[in-house]
Design goal:
With about 100 residues, the chain is of the alpha+beta class. The chain is built from two helices and four strands; from the N terminus they run E-H-E-H-E-E. It has helices at about 25-35, 60-70, and strands at about 10-15, 35-50, 75-85, 85-95. A four-stranded mixed β-sheet has the order 1-2-4-3. The model has no long low-confidence stretch (mean pLDDT about 90).
């Protein structure tokens, strides 16, 4: 995986819409995103919720994304459900 070109602690907020499920393994990228965020910066993630084994393509459950974010040093502060099949997590960089 390539390194992000932004300097550490230079970004206030990152929005990832329907993309993080494509990254394997996800942990190293989340750590890089955390590094470029300023202190108390935010990562906003919008993803499709899995609907069981009939789903086509890669997906990550809400619980799986929360776990990955916590392991990378984020604290999930808010959860939204814009539709039946979408979830949005707002996570803040922790020290």
């Amino acid at each position: 995986m390539e390194e992000l070109s932004s300097p550490d602690s230079s970004v206030d907020m990152i929005i990832a819409s329907l993309v993080l499920h494509e990254i394997q393994p996800l942990g190293p990228l989340l750590q890089q995103l955390r590094n470029v965020l300023k202190k108390e910066g935010y990562l906003i993630c919008l993803e499709l919720e899995t609907k069981g084994s009939s789903d086509k393509g890669p997906r990550i459950t809400l619980e799986g994304m929360e776990r990955e974010m916590k392991e990378a040093g984020f604290q999930v502060t808010e959860k939204y459900f814009p539709s039946e099949s979408l979830y949005m997590l707002v996570a803040q960089k922790t020290d």
